[in-house]
Amino acid sequence: MDEWSDSEGNTLPPDNPGAFQNAMEEAFYGPVGDLSVPESQRMFSTKDNPPSYPDRIFELIKDGAKIVTMFGIGRVCHIAFWEPHFSAEFNSLDEWKKTTVPPRAKLHPLTIEQNAITSFKSLTTLVLAFANTTGPGLFLESDYIIGGCDGTLGRGMMWQGMSFVVTLHNEPDM
C-alpha cells in the first residue's frame, strides 16, 4: 500500500532492510505461509504502481473480491502515509473521499520521527521524507481493515494507542 520514497517516487529495492515491502514480506507474508495473499495480489508502492491501483482494485471488486487493507495509524493520525496536512489541498469532503492516489506524499516531520524510532533505531537520516501511498478513494472502499499500532517506547509510553482511538472514534474526515 505504501512505501518510503524520494521526491521523485523512487523506492528502495524490495530486499533492502529499510524497505516497507521487505518488512511486510518478513513479518507478515512469510510467517503466514500458504494462508497468505497470493503474490500476484500484493500491491506495493513502487514508483509506477500506485496509478494502477484504482483500476486493479475496482476490477477485483467487480469480480467479487473482498478488499482487505492493512495499515497502521501514525503519530499524527496518518493512515497509510495519508497525512492530515494533505487536507489543505481539498475544497470539500467529497473531493477528499474520491482521491485514490495522491502526488508524491511529503511526510510530516512527526511521521519521519516515528519511522526513525520504530524502524531505524532512531536514525532519522535513514528515513526518506516522501512516500508513495494511496488515498481515501481506495482505503474507504475496503470491506475489512487490519489496523495496528506499535508505538510502545518503553516505560509505558504508548502514544500510538491514542492516535488509534481518536481515529476510530471519528467518521472519515479531511
Can you tell me about this structure?
The chain is of the alpha+beta class. The chain has a single domain (3-168), classed as Rossmann fold. It is built from 6 helices and 5 strands; from the N terminus they run βααβαβαβαβα. It has helices at residues 20-32, 53-62, 93-98, 109-119, 136-139, 159-168; strands at 3-5, 68-72, 105-106, 130-132, 144-148. The strands form 2 sheets. Strands 1-4-3 form a 3-stranded antiparallel sheet, with no helix packed on it. It has a two-stranded parallel sheet with strand order 2-5. The radius of gyration is 16 Å and the shape is globular. The protein starts with a strand and ends in a 6-residue tail after the last helix.
How would you summarize the topology of this molecule?
Blueprint: E1 3-5, H1 20-32, H2 53-62, E2 68-72, H3 93-98, E3 105-106, H4 109-119, E4 130-132, H5 136-139, E5 144-148, H6 159-168
Parallel strand pairs: 2-5
Antiparallel strand pairs: 1-4, 3-4
> How many domain units?
1
- Strand portion, in percent? 5-15%
Largest sheet: 3 strands, antiparallel
Which outline best applies? globular
Mean pLDDT: 81
Helix content range:
25-40%
Poorly predicted parts: none
Output the CATH class name.
Alpha Beta
Span between N and C termini?
Answer: 20 Å
Individual helix count = 6
Subunit organisation of the chains: single chain
What strand order characterises the main sheet?
A: 1-4-3
Mind telling me which CATH architecture this is? 3-Layer(aba) Sandwich
Rg from alpha-carbon coordinates = 16 Å
Overall number of strands: 5
